[in-house]
Structure formats: C-alpha cells, structure tokens
Amino acid sequence: MSKTKYDVIIIGGGLAGLTSAIHLSMENYSVLLIEKNSYPKHKVCGEYVSNEVLPYLEFLGFNPFEFGAKRISEFELTTHNNKRIKAKLPLGGFGISRYEFDFQLYKLAIKNSVTVCQDTVTDAEFESDIFRIKTKSKGQFQSKIAIGAFGKRSNLDVKYQREFIKKKSPYLGVKIHVSGDFLEEKVALHNFKGGYCGVSKVENDHINLCYITNYKTFKKYKDIDTFQREVLFKNSDLKAVFQNTKPEFDKPLTISQISFETKNPVENHMIMCGDTAGMIHPLCGNGMGIAIRSSQLASLLIIDYLQEKIEKRKTFEERYAKQWRKTFSLRLKAGHTIAYLFRQDWLAPKLLVLLRIFPFLVSLIIKMTHGKLMEV
Q1: Could you list the pLDDT tens digit for every one of the 376 residues in the chain?
Q2: Cα–Cα distance between 354 and 364 in angstroms, integer?
Q3: How many domains does the chain have?
C-alpha cells in the first residue's frame, strides 16, 4: 500500500464506517478504511434494522432485499412470566445478518474505489491540522479528517481517556443463528430475569437469537447452556424457540463489557460514528439504524468542510456534536428509561397490562426509539 495520504481515514469497518466510506467516495474523496477483521464475519448484533435507513441506503446504491433481507412489520413483546403484547411497527424494518450486510457494503466500497486496509490501529494523533494514524503492520497514514467507527470498545478509547471506558460495564451479549419455524415478518423481544432476547429472521431463512444480560446474573451459572436452561427458559417463548430449532453456529458468539454510558460525538478532533459515539439499549432494537444515520450526518458535514463551506474545524466539530445530540439524545434517553423499567422484574408485567389497556402507547414508544425516514 504505497499511498499514505488520504482526504479521510475511517477507523473501523462496521456499518457506520462502511456507509461513510461509500458516501465520501461518491464525492470523489480519497478514503482509507482500516478494519482489523476480514470480511465476511459474524458479529454479536440484533440484526433488525428500521426502514428509516432505506432511502439513504438507496442513495448509496445498496438494496438489502437483493441479498435476501426479510421484510418485518410485526412486533411482539413478552415478559419473564409469559405475559405478551403484539403491535404493528409504525415504519417497519428488515432483517439481515451482519455477516451479509457488512460483506456486501464492503464490496460496494471497493467498487467505489475505497482503499480497505486489514490492520489494527495502534495510535491516532492530531497535530498541525493533520491526523497521523499508526497501524500495527502497514505503517503510518495521514489525513485531514478521521472518523472513529471502531465500535463498542477500543484501545483508542483508552488513549483518549474517554469517560465511559473508566467505568466497569456489567453487560454481556450472546448471539447464535438457528434454523426452524419463525414468522419472517415478526421481530420478537422476550424478557427474562436479568435481560432480554431479540428474535428475528435474516437471509437464508436463519433465525437470529441475540440476548443481553447482566454479567452478575450470568456468572452464577457454570456455562451458557446452564444459564439458558435455568434463566432464559423460564420464558416459555424463548424455551420453545431454543428447543425447537437447530443451531447453525458451532458455538454462540459472545461479547462482554458492553457500555451504554454517554459518549462524546467528537474526541481529540476525531468524528465518532455508530457505537463509538453512543449505543441505544438493544431492548429498543435499532442500533444498526443509528449507526447508519450517524454516518450520514458525519459524511454531509465532512463534505461541507472539505469543500470549505464550513471554514473552521471548530465550527465543523461543534455542528456535528450538536446535530448528533439533536438526532439521537432523546432516543438514547428513551432507550435507557425503557430498558431500566423492563429490568424491574416486578414492574414489567404491570407495564404490559398498561400497554394492553392503552395500545397506542406501544406505537408511541417505538416511535421514540426509531426515527423518521432519512432524507437524502
């Protein structure tokens, strides 16, 4: 890789990093995307995406339904003691695995002349209006703009001494794909004591099961199988879906130290996107949509800055932080509140009774955690 200077360097090749790379390359900027893993790769993720992002994906030249994405219009919620409620999703959504979604976006990025480097970033310094990004194997690169899209936790979070990284995070995520019967138009959220599990179909007719739990609850049991039998299976719907399906993975994928703490959208002049900027509780099921929407916010402002429509870097950074908070703060707060309420085992069944009496509240809650159709 002989070239070392780029207009934009993106650290992290998930949804936020890839969509930003494609968008910026469409404006003929030179983009380097650094991703430590190879494609395709499974990730611990709910794999349900709100339809709010479809206009933007179309703008980027990407149609998820060409790759087998499932159209989702129904929502079901159950509590740990098997109370349930059903509702229509106001905007609807689609189900597609991160294995397929990221891989196809990666191929589109390559087609759009994005340079993709498989390596680990070891340092990122900003000096004299230039970023110097050091990697483990490929050396050092320079750019005017750097986007941090490296996900939930990174060595750069430690380097920048970000507040959330100093705090212990109690959450553990587990994901597996299975095959069996499940309505492809439905996304279900099944609560259990200490957590909740999302269920939805993705391409190849696989069913994605992804749950998050408090590590303190989990560590009482010797392994995942025991935890699932003793805790998850108290929810009869979860028991049925786990016991009446066939695993498609050799073993479940896990991720620990998941943090829902507030993060800054800009750190050390680096523009943060996706989970790097902030995470919504999986209970609200729209982290992938937020990642894609944040990349659009960042890309549009980066284009304005590189075209000198925004003259000062300080102004550019302030605008991004302001727009990010305006777009996502309410969603994240609503997600925190809803997740907190449903974690109270004594309260969750009572909330469900309330939602049955006033069903319009279900639609209202969904709208609070999902945006409107993205404008392009």
Answers
A1: 557 999 999 999 999 999 999 999 999 999 999 999 999 999 999 999 999 999 999 999 999 999 999 999 999 988 888 888 898 988 899 999 999 999 999 999 999 999 999 999 999 999 999 999 999 999 999 999 999 999 877 888 888 888 777 777 788 999 999 999 999 999 998 989 888 899 999 999 999 999 989 888 888 998 999 999 999 999 999 999 999 999 999 999 999 877 767 789 999 999 999 888 876 555 555 788 889 999 999 999 999 999 999 999 999 999 999 999 888 877 767 666 766 776 677 776 777 778 777 777 777 776 666 667 677 7
A2: 13
A3: 1
Question: 109: closest CA among 208, 188, 30?
Answer: 30
Nearest partner of 18 among 6, 29, 30, 10, judged by Cα: 10
CATH of the domain at 315: 3.50.50.60
Residue 236 forms part of a structural domain:
no
Q: Is residue 205 part of a domain?
A: no
Q: Provide the domain limits for residue 327.
A: 5-42+96-168+258-343
CA dihedral 135, 137, 141, 146 (to 10 degrees): -30
